[in-house]
Design brief:
The structure is a single chain. This protein is mainly beta and 365 residues long. It has one domain (3-360): Neuraminidase. The protein has helices at residues 41-45, 93-97, 145-149, 197-201, 249-253, 301-305, 353-356; strands at residues 3-8, 13-19, 25-31, 37-40, 50-60, 65-72, 77-83, 89-92, 102-112, 117-124, 129-135, 141-144, 154-164, 169-176, 181-187, 193-196, 206-216, 221-228, 233-239, 245-248, 258-268, 273-280, 285-291, 297-300, 315-320, 325-331, 337-342, 348-352, 359-360. The strands form 7 sheets. The protein has a 5-stranded mixed β-sheet. The longest helix has 5 residues, at 41-45. It starts with a strand and ends in a 5-residue tail after the last strand.
Length: 365
Amino acid sequence: MNLYGYDWPKGGTKQVVYVDEQGHVIELFVGFGGPRQSADLTELTGAPLPASAVLAGYTWSVGGTKQVAYVDEQGHVIELFVASGIPWQWADLTALTGAPLADRHSLTGYDWSAGGTKQVAYVDEQGHVIELFVAAEMPWQWADITALTGAHRSNGAALTGYDWSAGGTKQVAYVDEQGHVIELFVAAGTPWQWADLTALTGAPLADQRPLVGYAWSAGGTKQVAYVDEQGHVIELFVAAGTPWQWADITTLTGAPLADQGSLTGYDWLNGGTEQVVYVDEQGHVIELSVAAGTPWQWADLTALTGGPLLHQGSLTGYGWVWGATKQVAYVDEQGHVIELHAGLSGKWRCTDLKVITRRETTKKT
């Protein structure tokens, strides 16, 4: 099971989406002080079933919407979307744009604050990175970013995309066939460019997957994290006007080795920290975190909370502004969605979302 969790500031909710055993897209969501609920987005919209468990969820500040993107059995990119007070809807972005078919193994979606757009990026069957994008009151468009930049082809297994407000850019990062981390990036009014971050920094080669990229507001940086062939968590990072650098966070902290199957990273606005979370070889959820001007630290969230071991490879983490919390979600051996969460007090807690959620059968957000 693949999970994706994210904050929706416009609606005041946090949500985790996943594909269930029937191939339906399920959303677990909660507002501040409200009950936890769930919704079958496939049933609510009548959208096609996903071809795999790969999906992405994100918000769009200009449009005021939240959306979930995935690939159906025809290789089409499907978007489910909703705004406050209206029902969920769906659109076939491939049919709308005439873009190439997706390879079904990698997908990312995100908001670009400087450009006012939302976009979904994926890898096509030729190993090219394709972007679908739209601005308010405009039709969806597509671009072959690999062809535009002449960048190396993707290995098809690892892809991440995100907004960097401090630099005014949007970027997509992936791993090429040589294990190098490649970044495609663009600022408003300029052409797409690419960089081989592995060659620029001399960092270790990436294992085939996973890969995560995100901006850190308090630090003013953007970063890409991955697991190398030794099971070490590696971070590539840069601030505006400075060269790319890299750090072996495993070595810096003495944290356990990663199992090379699960990784997530995110900015926590309320706490001012950035964190990378992964699963070690014992099935424990490990957090690496840092605040500006302090050294990296690590914590075993499984040991701190008494939470169940992670059973399947998917892991997601994100900050929730309204609740002033950070949280990590995963699936345990019973198939339950488990959330580990902490507020500004720093005390971690564990909640079994599969047990306490209620399935919604009406069209509500």
